[in-house]
Recover the amino acids of this structure.
């Protein structure tokens, strides 16, 4: 018999499903095979922390938005986006590409995951230039690769903690950071933090390199106006953006100059997203994580609990 929550969520499930699949197509537009070969675990496998954290769509979307906010604070990383992307017209496209890469490297068989990594490396090799202050930058600079990776991993983990409704056991965060650094290292990053303590120490070291510039302001303004359609009454683009901002560490809040009112709005948005997050799980019961579990012959339900 369906649970009371399932019955209450039923009217919203199909609109959510349609929206997610149109905004973030599965499998990177059909280029990744998540179903074969049977029994191939990929880079992590169903017992990993990574499969669990990355299966939570609300946390991953809010975390992805938080990571974009953090990444605007590094002048050299921002210069690459400024000079080599059409972020003004296609910021949602950047989110889609990030989503496809993360999904593929997490859940695809090993061959597919490695092919995605090689494709991104070839793109990075072409992204180089000179920042506003005259310093050269390159997207395949190990230092910048580490920055982008850490901001994403931190934000995804915080999104999971805040919105998944699943408590993480002791040591699970360290497991997650130690696992996902493999992706960063395969891309060319070096000295990648492998635990929660190392991530915190990394952020303390990097703060001397960060700044909130006029370019940061422009990108965040574009982000605040991004077309992010949502399917459920009561949810809006601003809820997701503010729920993402709620994941920022305090030092980033201060550097971004966020006001007490903005922080209060983020807290309200975080509560709103937390309250509806279970509907996403019910609506996306047969998503990429489920297909990867089927490939491995295990129930997707194992991702809702920790070993």
């Amino acid at each position: 018999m369906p649970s009371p929550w399932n019955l209450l969520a039923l009217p919203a499930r199909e609109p959510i499903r349609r929206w997610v699949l149109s905004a973030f197509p599965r499998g990177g537009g059909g280029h990744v095979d998540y179903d074969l070969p049977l029994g191939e675990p990929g880079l992590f496998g169903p017992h990993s922390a990574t499969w669990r954290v990355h299966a939570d769509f609300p946390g991953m979307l809010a975390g992805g938005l938080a990571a974009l906010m953090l990444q605007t604070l590094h002048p050299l990383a921002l210069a690459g986006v400024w000079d080599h992307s059409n972020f003004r017209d296609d910021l949602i496209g950047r989110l889609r590409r990030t989503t496809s890469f993360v999904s593929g490297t997490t859940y695809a068989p090993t061959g597919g995951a490695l092919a995605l990594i090689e494709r991104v490396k070839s793109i990075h090799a072409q992204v180089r230039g000179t920042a506003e202050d005259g310093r050269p930058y390159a997207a395949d600079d190990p230092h910048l690769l580490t920055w982008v990776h850490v901001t994403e991993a931190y934000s995804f983990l915080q999104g999971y903690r805040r919105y998944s409704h699943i408590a993480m056991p002791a040591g699970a965060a360290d497991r997650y950071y130690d696992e996902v650094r493999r992706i960063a290292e395969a891309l060319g990053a070096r000295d990648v933090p492998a635990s929660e303590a190392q991530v915190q120490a990394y952020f303390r070291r990097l703060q001397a390199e960060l700044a909130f510039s006029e370019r940061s302001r422009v990108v965040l303004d574009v982000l605040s106006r991004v077309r992010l359609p949502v399917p459920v009454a009561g949810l809006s683009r601003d809820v997701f953006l503010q729920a993402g901002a709620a994941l920022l560490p305090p030092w980033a809040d201060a550097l971004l100059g966020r006001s007490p009112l903005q922080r209060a709005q983020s807290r309200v948005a975080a509560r709103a997203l937390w309250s509806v997050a279970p509907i996403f799980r019910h609506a996306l019961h047969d998503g990429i994580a489920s297909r990867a579990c089927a490939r491995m012959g295990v129930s997707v339900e194992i991702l809702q609990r920790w070993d």
In short: The beta strands are 128-130, 136-138. The CA atoms of residues 101 and 119 lie 10 Å apart.
